[in-house]
Hints:
Layout: H1 28-41, H2 55-70, H3 76-89, H4 93-105, H5 111-114, E1 116-120, E2 133-138, E3 146-151, E4 156-161, E5 166-171, E6 180-186, E7 205-211, E8 216-221, E9 226-232, E10 239-248, E11 252-258, E12 263-268, E13 273-278, E14 286-289, E15 300-305, E16 315-320, E17 337-344, E18 347-352
Antiparallel strand pairs: 1-2, 3-4, 4-5, 5-6, 7-8, 8-9, 9-10, 11-12, 12-13, 13-14, 15-16, 16-17, 17-18
Helix pairs in contact: 1-2, 3-4
Amino acid sequence: xxxxxxxxxxxxxxxxxxxxxxxDRMPADMRDAYEFTRxxxxxxxxxxxxxPANPKLSKAIIPTSAYFQRESTLTKAEIEIVTNVIxxxxxxxxxxxxxxxxxxxxxxxxxxxxxxLHRLDMRGWTPGTSVMLEPIFMFPREVLALNxxxxxxxxTVLAADSFAGAIWRIDFDDEGRAPxxxxxxxxxxxxxxxxxxxxxxxxxxxxxxxxxRTGFAYYTTTGQKLFMRVRVDPATLEPVGGPERVAGxxxxxxxxxxxxxxxxxxxxxxxxRIDSEPLRPGGILRPLAGALLNEMxxxxxxxxxxxxxxxxxxxxxxxxxxxQTAPPPDGVVRTAKVLRMELQQASATAGTA
Length: 353
């Protein structure tokens, strides 16, 4: 599926959050619940693949879902408004991603009403307590699918539009409010390209990070297999010149920057590994983890530094989708994971957190 060509609700799978049972291996009651869903919905969408594990509950809840989508008096636009408001309240990123696309393509909602900037005030937050999500800005119509973002300063953020192939700049006041947004840079190296890979569609520009030490903003373009950089003017925070290719050849997703070692650690999502790449062109790329197929390293999607005392520059946390985007050879998707990667000189070890 390519964004802009959607004709019916798509099946994005379970994204590694659940170990799926192949249909031909389902017990009789589970298979019956699966077929019950398929008959009512015409397919078994990702979230509904979890329900057949409890056949009685599945048969109780699926008719409600089918009624909401097909028999209620709400219009498709109203259905998607309700769905996205609930998703946003519970910070449900996966379902928001899918239903924002459906809202625009099937519900006919204006993109500027779907693509929004939200503010989360983390001051005073403690683990286990809730965080209030506050919408503070609606992006203009040309914004299609915001993805990676990074801070250039305490009041300036860049955001990558994966399907429009562009970077946006958002400036705030000192309280993180009163946002003002404008296009920052658009380049062919950021473009979303049509490919023949299985869904979900692979993004154009994806991960986005800034290194104050080098003075460059770095980004990945997954579909084009690129790792790029563009110089940032330290006074105006505007781009200087055009983007420059740092590396290529892998379906890079997100990454984190190691200024101390002058390297970036890139999650190569569909290829189940993490690459260590110099921050300048012409360097030697080497696999850091997952060079051999490792069940623990299936579908690495993002990387972030630990903020714990004494772990700066030493510990990286990596998320995985369990092989949902690119299933392993046995076709069985594992559960998604958070991995803890400890860096020692030029090597790293990974373990489940």
